[in-house]
Structure formats: structure tokens, C-alpha cells
Amino acid sequence: MASLKEVKSRIGSVQGTRKVTSAMKMVSAAKLHKAQNIITSMLPYQQSLDNIVSNFLAGETPFHSPYVLKEGEELAIGGKVAIVVFSSNSSLCGAFNYNIIREFTSLVLALKAEKVEEGAIDVYAIGKKVEEAIIKMGFKPETYQDLAAKPDYKKIFTLAEHILELYASGVYTRVYVIYHHFKSSAVQRVQRQLYLPLKVQEYKKEQKASAEGFLNNYIVEPSVAEVIESLMPQLLKQKLYTCLADSFASEHAARTIAMQVATDNAEDLIQELTVLYNKSRQQAITAELLDIVAGSAQ
Questions:
Q1: What is the mean pLDDT of the chain?
Q2: 267 and 64 Cβ atoms separated by less than 8 Å
């Protein structure tokens, strides 16, 4: 059995760890609240933009956009592929970063199976942890650690414009995004999506007539086609910002849960060690009393 001094030292050590994990949980909970506010304030704009595009696409108006893959068109195979992957800058958030790295590895293997060479894959790493893992895999990513630390609307739009420009000029044939979707504080799911080209059928929804029988028919100036073409880049930029906001919220939700579990485990361990300390102390007192009684009897 461990000595009283060793047990007391372990109790002190675990108590110190519990203070750290408890503090980190509170910090992550505060940041999670801020991230949820970002998503909440962005959601109405995102939904309105999505509805506008969906309504226009439902009209079957012919239009041209270099970012869109229309129904019946085949996805281009080969050429350069870009991957935008989101992670965190720090650890202690459970399997958050591991899941992202695993999904990135899975995508790379799938691309190699399509005969896409490693040198034809460009990576945009948003987050230190995924950046470190990608470098170990032999890639040379463009890094954006500041975006993982604090979502910035202007910076992510600048990145989106850069990617859209390269895609429109034919440098990239496909662009993927890998991130965590924030479903709730307890559930965050890894998403791997085709960012470019944008598939029309994913945004094309059935438009229902209202109870009075009116349809969503609009008179648009200069034309429906021009409005759609101008909205597509805005929609794609907003989508990348949504991925960033989702990832930021998911990181702090994962860290809050991980630190809560660590704090609970520390409290359980402190209780076990306290019981052990009391038993050891009682045994030491009993042994001393027995020695006193035995000495007086002699």
C-alpha cells in the first residue's frame, strides 16, 4: 500500500488537474456561446440566399456559370484537385482533430484510386493540428491558423475568391471541403462535401403554390440568368464561411465535453484517493495504538 505522503501528493496533483480542466471547460463554454451567436446571426441570411437561388433555379431559366454543374453534365475527372480542410489550433478536444485527419486521409486515398497524383492535390489547411498532420503526409499546404482561432468574414471571403478564381480559370477541376457540422452541443459530425463545381440539383427544390393558388413568379431586371450568375459566387463564398463557423462551434463544443469528462474523472479519482488516504491513516493509528498497548502490557 502506498504511504500517506504519496497518497496525499497524488490527491494534490489530481486536484490541480481538476482546476485546469474545469477552467478550460468554462472558457470553451463561453467561446461556444459566442460561436453559436455567429451561426444564429448568419443563418437567416444563409437561408434567404438559398431560397432565392432555389426559386430562380426552379424556373428552368437557362444560365451560364463556371461554378455550376448542371443536371446531365458529368463531373470532370483528373486535373488538379483542391481540398479545404478545417481543424483546431490546439488539442484537448477529444477526437475532433483525429476525425478530420482520418477523413482527409480517406479522401486522398480515394483521389489516388482515381489516378490523381499527390502533386496534383492542393491543400488549404485551416487549423494548426491538421496542418501538422498534412505536412507529415508529404503535402505543402497553404495555412490559415488565424481563421481557426477566430472566424473572420473578410479573410474567408478572400480565400473563397482565390479558390473560385483558380477554379474558373481551369486550374482546379474539383474542390472539396472537410469540416465538422455543428448539429448540437453534444453532436458534431464530420462532413466531406464537393464544394466546386456546385451541383444544381442540390439547390433545386420543388416550389409549392400558396393556399390562394399564386406561384412564385417574379419580374426580374436585368434578367433571371444574370441574377443567378451574380448570386452563385456569393452563395459559394457564404458556404465556405458557414463551414468555418460550423468548425469553430464544433471545436469548442467538443472541448467543453472533453473537459467536463476529464473534470468528472478527476473528481471520482479524488474520492477514491481520499478513501485510500483515510484507510491508510486509520491503519497507521491502529498500529501505533497496538504498539502502545503491547508495550504497556510488558
A1: 84
A2: no
* 181: Cβ contacts below 8 Å, ≥ 6 apart: 188, 189, 190, 191, 246, 250
**Exposure of 273 in the CB half-sphere (CA atoms within 13 A):** 20
- Residue 201 near residue 68 (C-beta atoms within 8 A): no
Dist. CA 38–CA 104, nearest whole Å: 26
Q: Residue 272: how many CB atoms within 10 A of its CB?
A: 12
Give the burial class of 159: count Cβ atoms within 10 A of its Cβ; 0-12 exposed, 13-18 middle, 19 or more buried. Answer: buried
* Regions of the chain with pLDDT less than 70: 1-2, 58-60, 71-72, 202-218, 295-298
Residue among 19, 22, 84, 97 at smallest CA distance from 254:
97
Residue 266 three-state SS: helix
pLDDT at position 276: 86
